[in-house]
Design a protein that fits this description.
By secondary structure, the chain is an alpha/beta fold. The protein has 16 helices and 17 strands.
Length: 471
């Protein structure tokens, strides 16, 4: 599939170019692509602002860079005036008239369907037209949760594209237009913005300013299991209607995780993208009790998601050698960990091909991989695996390892330079324990240990049929 006329490419922030641009290192999962001299000239031209030509070979190379996460699409300036005539916004709401008003306020002129999911005080026409869009209202007599509510709205959609927006999300028609133009790429089935926490001075708002589970960061991404951004929430998500209807909408059997399940299914056939250049906001939970219940609910979905997508919800995904390096370090054998880590770098270097500094590059690649694993192990020790960590802390032979896991987990939080370190550590502990408790509750209910088991991924560089090299 060709990119729309006039579109160009923007290199990913972490993309590294070696050997005069003939070797590109980056993407998610991390890989190494070796280009011909002509391919290197093309990528330099595209990254310098030149649009991708209709030439099939040029289009194929551009698509490979996009699918690898090494580059991101740059729509043409003419796309800025895209209309929203083929978009319908569906807003599920339950007992949140203020949140509904916030969302509708920015959607004047947009087709909107409000689904009242069994509110104690039904949504009225006057409420749904407050300060913004005039919406069609459909009421469900009983609350079925966000997934079934969205399905109710989806059944009424007649446009080619539907945008799901949660009540309370502050979004504008301009935001939707920016998302809509990404769907001019026919290979993209869904697009999501960055969902940041609304400004606030209360404890939870200050915490979620940097730790909201809806906020997936600053870097654009191709979304899917095993990628840097594995899912996007339906707090704000724009999707093509036809493949969504073909799937049957959201799984009504999932109270939590229905958005992750949907995105993973869609990402299996087409591209789902995350575009943080579009920012919408969502309020934090109003009470600590609601915050804890939300996190437990999120964690409890892991077992159901594991049944549907085996291995995708593993708490840690890394190569066997990275596990060995991390576990040796936490077990109190840093020298042995260093030796194994050095050995993996030496083993990788010959597989990178004829690079002038292959050993240095191999050391960088393996070092980053081991570091990510190290952080993931420490994070999982405080979340999904916290009961095991607690046992390590109370047993004298393993207490040092338990303390090391906890300290590394806290230190990596501080390394992110939160504005309120004390709040980040204390509320973060509640966050981790709540989510981990949910994982265990779901695992017991589903009678599976799947969401607690780490996943071993590939480490060595392999050659694929296209002749490109990838790690």
């Amino acid at each position: 599939m060709s990119l729309p006329a006039g579109w160009g490419l923007v290199p990913a922030d972490d993309l590294r170019k070696r050997d005069a641009g003939r070797v590109l290192i980056g993407g998610s999962p991390l890989r190494v692509l070796r280009l011909s001299a002509g391919g290197a000239r093309l990528t330099r031209a595209w990254f310098g602002g030149q649009p991708v030509s209709p030439n099939p070979q040029h289009q194929e190379l551009a698509r490979r860079l996009l699918d690898a996460g090494m580059a991101w699409p740059r729509p043409s300036a003419a796309d800025d005036a895209v209309a929203l005539g083929d978009v319908t916004v569906v807003i599920p709401v339950r007992d949140d008239p203020d949140g509904l008003a916030i969302t509708l306020a920015g959607l004047a002129g947009v087709t909107v369907i409000v689904v009242d999911d069994g509110s104690r005080r039904p949504v009225t026409a006057s409420t749904a037209s407050h300060r913004g869009a005039v919406a069609e209202i459909v009421r469900r007599p009983d609350s079925g949760g966000p997934g079934p509510a969205r399905n109710t709205g989806l059944d009424l959609v007649t446009t080619d594209i539907v945008a799901f927006v949660d009540a309370g999300v502050s979004v504008t028609a301009a935001d939707l237009r920016a998302l809509r133009r990404q769907l001019d790429d026919s290979t993209v089935v869904a697009i999501a913005p960055r969902v940041a926490c609304s400004p606030g001075t209360d404890l939870l708002s200050r915490y979620e300013r940097t730790r909201s589970p809806l906020d997936l960061g600053l870097d654009p991404a191709v979304v899917g299991p095993g990628r840097a951004v594995s899912y996007v929430p339906t707090a704000c998500l724009m999707v093509r209607t036809e493949p969504l209807l073909r799937r049957g909408g959201f799984d009504p059997g999932l109270r939590f995780g229905e958005d992750v399940d949907l995105v993973w299914d869609l990402a299996g056939d087409q591209r789902v993208r995350f575009d943080p250049s579009v920012i919408v906001t969502h309020p934090a939970r109003s009470t600590l009790g609601a915050f804890v219940r939300q996190r437990i609910g999120y964690g409890s979905a892991a077992a159901s998601l594991h049944r549907r997508h085996p291995g995708a919800v593993a708490p840690v995904q890394a190569s066997l050698w990275s596990y060995v390096v991390g576990l040796l370090c936490f077990a109190g054998h840093p020298l042995a960990s260093l030796v194994v880590g050095t050995g993996t770098a030496m083993a990788l270097a010959p597989r990178l091909g004829p690079l002038p500094d292959a050993r240095v590059e191999a050391a960088i690649l393996t070092g980053r991989g081991h570091h990510r694993t190290f952080r993931s192990l420490a994070r999982s020790a405080l979340r999904a695996w916290w009961p095991f960590t607690a046992l390590l802390l109370v047993a004298s032979p393993t207490r040092r390892s338990g303390i090391a896991l906890v300290l590394v987990g806290w230190l990596q939080r501080l390394a992110d330079r939160p504005k309120d370190p004390l709040i980040d550590l204390t509320v973060g502990l509640i966050d981790d324990l709540s989510y981990g408790t949910g994982v265990w509750r779901g695992a017991l209910a589903e009678r599976t240990i799947g969401p607690l088991v780490p996943k071993v991924t590939e480490w060595l560089v392999r050659r694929n049929p296209s002749g490109l090299r990838e790690r």
